[in-house]
Every structure is written in structure tokens, then in C-alpha cells.
Amino acid sequence: MSEDRRKNHLVVLIHGLWGSAQNLSRLESVLHHSLDETPNCKLHTYAPDCFSHFKTYDGIESIGGYIIPNLFKHLEKLQAEHGIVIEEISFVGYSLGGLIARYIIGELFEVGFFEKIKPGFFTTFATPHLGVTFYNSRILNVCGSHFLGQTGRDLFLVENVKGIVYKLCDPDRRYYRGLNLFKTKICVANAKFDRTVGFYSAFITKYDVFNDWNSVNPKYIKDLPTATLIENGKQIQCMVIDFNESERIDPAEKRQDPSQSSPSQSKFAMTVLLTVGFMLFPVIFSVSLFATIKSYLRRRILPKPDFAKLWKATSAYFELVGDEGDEEQSSLLSTSESQNFLKDSDKKQDDDDGYNEADNLQQRPIGVSHITRAVVENGLNMIDEDVDADVEQTISKKSPTDTSKLYSIDVDFELDYKSRSGSVKELVNNLINNDLSDVALTKNLDPLPFNDVRQRILDNLNSLSWTKIAVLLHNLNAHQSVVGRRGFERTPESIPFLFLYSFLIDTSMKQSSE
């Protein structure tokens, strides 16, 4: 058998508020299904599980402090147990995880991490890059900033320019400079049905272009992948907004969606929601308050790790195990530096990093934090009456040159596409990667009333080069569907889009290896 000379590429997947590593298991599976055979690199994935559930209340900096030492240990484990030396690293952040990933990248940049391990790609799914605010609800802003621990203070920009969300975008700080090393930076935003993270914040723009859906004539990029569910034959189109073709309708000619739920249906849904919310609110409030207090005490007690010292020890370990028994170099390692090292480097080494899809996709019992998230997210998504509207999907007929592949991830489905390169070309050629100020959808549309801090965050982030994607997923809770968080069996809407994303990453890897 010929030796596998592909570079080892680690993708770190970071979940969001109230979540766990399981939230990104479907995205992780798609990446492996799509990229395991790529000739450009050997893919490895790592989803940290050290900050799940109510630990996500601890704030962006504290959570980053949990992840970075575990990331170093994981790199050592890959080397010691599997003989895998990571040469390139990428980050995927979902929701809050995108901000955490940006913090981690900055700290790694500061200690010289990227001098040894090459930066790959960076992606966020529904991440509040501009923070969170509810422009029509002061109550939600107060609750969010006071009852989500330090994370709430971070997301709602309570500390203004002294807060971490502003620091992450400051061009003079390590976070901006570290992020700038990643040539491929992708941000994915839900065009509709996501009221947990506003479109404007995830897309990094000052325009909430889809707030009034009936005033928009949306068009979608053509010739993107389509998924067909084997069990019932349902076809799912990959619906990425084409900003070049979409237009805003004159207010006098506002379209009415004939499939939109009737007022009586909406009132009934709201009544059910309010009844359930009234019953659960005292419990959720008490649990969240307790979690906030516990988070505050935890942050006070736990010391911040010395990232520079930890990285020095980890990088020295790599040099040691790669030196094939140089006793003189081995003596350079002090006890304190080597205490985190995995000593069993003489174990059987192979090219398997322990990834197991069956374990990865196994459902776990939900806890109180998951119930909290479900109530909050589904509640926010039920506020507007248009959530039950049936979004028209245009299904393109298959051509003789289409590629069809069968997959089984929770459900059996067939993915149809012309070619990977063809799909990516159609996507990239029709994207708008600026702040949307020069597209027809923002014509006569007032920008959101940003304060000075949020405007500076916007301007600084848009000074970087982004690939911006607005996707439409017809689901009650698009915030969870955008990464298939509840599984493809329950929310198959994300299947074709996530595979399209994997094709985009494959293309990025090819370009970076040239």
C-alpha cells in the first residue's frame, strides 16, 4: 500500500449557547462524507465538549479559556495515539460559537500557534457578529443582558468598547489580526425564520432586508444541489438568496402570500405559545438565574490559563516526539511543562483519528438547558405571523450530466448536482460579499439605528474579506436547522445546503494547496 502523503487538516467545530458538541454532528458527518476522499488533505474533526449546557453562560473569554487547553491536548493525543501531526487547522462556529472561535484564533495568534500550524478556513453559521439586540422589545434586551451570565453581557454589548465583542474586531488587536490570516472567511446567515440571531448580525450588514418578507421579491441562485428523501420522495432545493436578482416591491404593490397562515391560525398558535410560556416561564427564569449565579462564581474561582506556557509545552512535545529519541532535547522538558503530555507515544500508530460516525450521530437525552433553548428559540420564532407560510420552491429537472449520490445520515437521501466545481461556480459568481448598500433590496430601506459601537464593529469587520451567504430554510426554527442541529430526520431542509458548503470548502482547500 502506498503511503498517504496528504496533509493532516483539523477542523474545530464550536457550538453555541445552551448547546453541546452534539449540535454540530450532522455538519461534521457531511464534511467527512464529502471530504474524506479529497486528494488535497486528510480531514480530521474535533468538537470540544468542555463547555456544554449552562457553562455557555460563562462568557466568550472564559469559554475560550476552557477550549484552548483541550485543543492542545487533542493535538498531543492525535500525535501520541495515532501518529497524526496536524499541519493545518480550520474553525467552524455555530451561533455563539463563531464569536468564541474568533477569540480562540486571536489567542492562538498571540502565542505563535500559526507559525507552526497553517490557518485554513473560517466559517460561522448564524453567528451574532454585531452582537444581539431586539429593536422592538426593551424587555427582551433587559432579560438577555441580565439573565444569561457574562455571555449575555457580551452579546448585548453591555460593556461597549471595553467588551469582548468590540475587542474581537479591533484592527489593532490580536483577534482581528489572527482572523485576517484565514484567506477563506465564510459567514452564513438565515434569510428568514431565525429570530434568535438577526439576519443583519449574522450577515454583517446594517440592513434588515427580510424583516418584511411580503415586501420582497426573492430570487435564488440556480443550479445548486437538490436532495430527495428516499422514504417519501420529497425534494429539497438549496435556496441561497441571489441579491443580484432579488428586488424590493413598492409598498403600494405589496405581494400577499396565498399560503400564509390565516389570522385565526396565527392567533391560535400564539395562544398556545403564550399558555405554554406562562407555565414554563417561572421554571426557566429560576433555572437561568441559578445558572447565571453559578457561572459568576465559577468565573471568579477558576484561573485563566496561561496560553503561552501551554503552547510552549505542546510545541516542545511535538519537537520531542519527532526527534526519535534525542535524549538531550528530552532533558529540556521540565516536569511542569510536560505534565499535560501523553506519554504513550509508543502505542500502535495508524492514520485513524478515532472519528466514529455512529457514535457521533447518537442522540443524547436533552437536559434543562436544551429545554430552555427550545422554549426561547421556538417562542421567538412564533412571534411573527408568517412562520407557517409555505415558501415556494422551484425544483430544477435533472439533466443527463447531473451527478446523483446516495447518502444515509439519519435518513436515506439522494443528492443531485451537476458537479462540485459547477455548483460552487454558480454560488460564488452570484454572491454579494459587501454590506448590501448597493443592491436593489436596500433601495429606499432605512438602515438599522446602530449606535457608535455597533457601527464601528460593522465597519471593522467589513474591512476584512468575507464570503457571505444568505440561505432560506423553510422551518419553524431556522436557527437550529442551518446546521441540522436536531438531525436530518426532523429537519432535512439543511441537507443540500450543507453539502454545497462542503463543496465550497473542498474548492477552498484545492486553491490553498496550489
From TrEMBL:
Gene3D superfamilies: alpha/beta hydrolase (3.40.50.1820). Keywords: Lipid degradation, Lipid metabolism, Membrane, Transmembrane, Transmembrane helix. The chain crosses the membrane at residues 268-291. One of its GO terms (biological process) is lipid catabolic process. GO terms for cellular component: lipid droplet. SUPFAM superfamilies: alpha/beta-Hydrolases (SSF53474). Pfam families: DUF676 (PF05057). Residues 330-339 have a biased composition (Low complexity). Residues 329-362 are annotated as: Disordered. GO terms for molecular function: monoacylglycerol lipase activity; phosphatidylcholine lysophospholipase activity. Residues 6-201 form the DUF676 domain. InterPro entries: AB_hydrolase_fold, DUF676_lipase-like, Lipase-like. Belongs to the putative lipase ROG1 family. This is DUF676 domain-containing protein. It comes from Pichia membranifaciens.
